[in-house]
Amino acid sequence: MESGIQEKATHQFLQGGGETGDIIRLFEWDQKSLGPINEWPVSLRSNVGMVLHAPFPMLLFWGNHLTYFYNDAYRSGFETEGKHAAIGKDARDVWPENWETIGSLLEKVMSDGKARCLEDQLLPFYRNGIREDSYWTLGFGPAYGDTDQVNGVIVTCTETTRKVQTLLKLSESDKRFESLVREASVGIIVLEGPDMIVKAVNEAYGRLIGLAASELYNKPLFTIIPESEPYFRQIIDKVRITGEPCYLYDHPYFILTDGGRKEGFLNLVYQFYREDDDTINGVMVLCQDVTEAVLARKKVEESGQKLWSLVESAPFPIGVYEGREMRIALANQSILDVWGKGNDVVGKLYADVLPELDNQEIFAQLDKVFTTGTPYHARNKRVDLQVNKELKSYYFNYSFTPLFDSIGNIYGVLNTAAETTDLNLAKQMVERSEQNLRNMILQAPVAMCILVGAQHTVEVANQFMIELWGKQAVDILHKPLFEGVPDANEQGLEQLLTNVYLTGNPFKANEHPVVFRRNGKMETKYQNFTFEPYRDGVGSIIGVLAVAINVTDQVLARLRIEEKVAERTKELAMANENLQRSNDELAQFAYIASHDLQEPLRKVSSFTEMLEQSLDKISDKTRNYLDRIISSTTRMTVLIRDVLSYSQLAKGNVLFEPVNLQQIVAEIEMDLELLIDQRKAVIITDQLPVINALPLQMSQLFANLISNALKFSKPGEPPLITISAKQMPPEEVIANGIAIHDTTYYLIEVKDNGIGFSAQYAEKIFNIFQRLHAKTEYSGTGIGLAICKKIAQNHQGEIFASSEINKGATFRIILPKKPNQ
Questions:
Q1: How far is 466 from 475, CA to CA, in rounded Å?
Q2: Distance of alpha carbon 719 from its chain centroid, rounded?
Q3: What residues contact residue 613 under an 8 Å CB cut-off, 6+ apart?
Q4: What is the pLDDT of residue 7?
Q5: What is the pTM of this model?
Q6: Which of 45, 226, 237, 218 is nearest to 146 (CA)?
């Protein structure tokens, strides 16, 4: 038993829940629909925890049975064995006497999730052993479960029995007050029967309608003032018939007199009176003329409303603080936004709402204004405010102005303000930017200066600029440029600077010659310079920022190089012509040689086949000789064909066309279908791009790579070949030693799981006739990968290989989408 209690005591959401929390903790929930506490959903625990820790009465009804929960604040209003002992019960069992009222609201909130309220609702309770009439104000709100569905109802409740009883007592007092009014100098008239016969009237009433009281006795009221009958008869009849009094305040009325139409406002009380047999026989009407008061109040209200609308809609903060303790009496939305403390501040102390202002002099400033009556004004004053739990710095222009009552005593302080945070921060940024700019100019590795005004006065210049001018700093700083450097006159620079200063259009020049007097003689200096408009904080042009790079040495060197280049161009043109002629001859030779070599090989092959057929009986030795001849001629034929293919790759004047690499690989798979099936190979191809290329060469490229992957597979392990493609950033293309010709490049990778090769051969394998294995191990001529490299280079790309022994090989091909034609 003790271990069970200890286990229940561990539920954190019940900690601090008071006596009710203990009741819930020790309750045998295993027997209820909600089950053990440790199986409750998170939402139920959260809602129960919230209810238990609330300082005011709260209830929670949960689940389809509306299981009942409450807190200590609610429990204190009932006897020991009352409704507080209903924890865990269904709501219908707990509230049978009020279920018609409460149950319907609970069901509506559960079904539509909309909050509802009952104000001063009569709810009878059994309390202290007897049934008592009590009044409650109840708020019903949805409680959401773990799946965001309404799974319960939270009820906040406040007992208003005393308030309602007090109002009832006041109603009785009102009746006594009416009796006093009848004796006062207000208009009183007593009307009897359905004809409204005047049985009693005082002079005050007669003055309201412009007649003497004696002119009204025993006459039907509406024969005297017929214009009032359409509205007032139904009111009087209702009071006479129902016995319910009627009260009208500030009610407009009009009557017709000899002087014309009389209008005004009345406070009216319609009260029935009874005969001795307790039957209602008539109605007493009390009339008080409040025309002047109503009109005055309307003017005040209109004036106050206009004033409040002005204050509330003001785009700057306004607040009013009353008393020396500075209690907030008014705060418009602008000042609430600045404070960031919510809208519920009226009636609170200024120091309690803004405690972070302590030690910022503001409390002392307010107190001084209140005690001395002297206003206080601050400009661009920093104020640190805590907004969203973070202390931030703001800047304001603000004023504290004393407020005086009608007899001249100070009763409060008016606070008006204008936020200048952005302006101050911008000013600080401009100042920092200007200083940073000056520091940057002084530390810049190129010549820089700032020229201010129409005279281009040198505001700041670094050492590189001063040395370029060939002057001393003291002779040029803070002086007009063309006074400090007179030798720069009449070279067009002043006109360029003036145009930038007046129009704001920057000017750039490269290798511009400028003549300066340096070391006693005139020297021509070549400069790359830029003139940019120099602006102040509001964007107005106040000068010119000049940046210059002395490129004299480079220009002179380039001129010398250009002379040399002109000479070499002629030599290179002749050399290129000779080289092109040699290349054409070499290609022609390779073609003729390979073509002429194929004819003898075909004859050797044919005669070998004829010899084999002519022999009736062939010994094993002879068979071996014939096989070797056939094998040698086959290898020679393949070698000649590959050499011919390699020589043809050098042909120019070919046109690229769109090639779908995905389709190229698919066609190769069909060509190699038999070999792929024999090796049980798997080829996985990613989505390959469409590029401008030579279709035949692309087929050669991928056919060679796939054939190699099949050829150099591991014994007993099915080949796995993966072909993928992705776009390659330009910087990576350049890093691989490829000159950029296009905006789009693709990296295509062909990976296999074969025998691989040593990393030291990653470049050598692309050399022509390079073999890594003996002819008896793997067939081939050693030209295939050389052809792949030549194809990649023909398309202005490149191919690389990487591998380790017994870990497969990866071939990386980089190709542009659109190579230069």
A1: 10
A2: 51
A3: none
A4: 47
A5: 0.30
A6: 45
